Amino acid sequence: MSGGRSRDLGLRNIGPKSSAWLRQVGLHTREDLAAAGPVDAYMRVRRAGFRPSMNLLYALEGALLDCHWQEVPEQRRQQLVAEAQAAIAELPDPRRPAAGPVTTTLSDRDDDADDAASGPDDDGRD
Fold this sequence. Notes:
Elements: H1 16-24, H2 30-36, H3 38-47, H4 54-65, H5 74-89, H6 109-118
């Protein structure tokens, strides 16, 4: 890859992992990305179960502007983050609730077996 461009998508800032994520969510070309926009593309990746950082969001914007992701103006970055956070807040709760605390339950099976062997009325006294 020369010039920091992805061979798959031909986009600046988009490495092989990000490119694979984008392909898996149906974004195969620059035109696909432009039609979706950086926030929607980022959200598609998240909803697909991947765990992108906000750097992907900046990289997507930089790819559309044809600039390095660190050159995206701070004000625009803040706007992108605010839009992404609003979209994340709209996502449904995870399917699996968080695991509760682990507890240990001890069984008195050995004691119960001894009691059953001695009989119901036998308290062990003669």
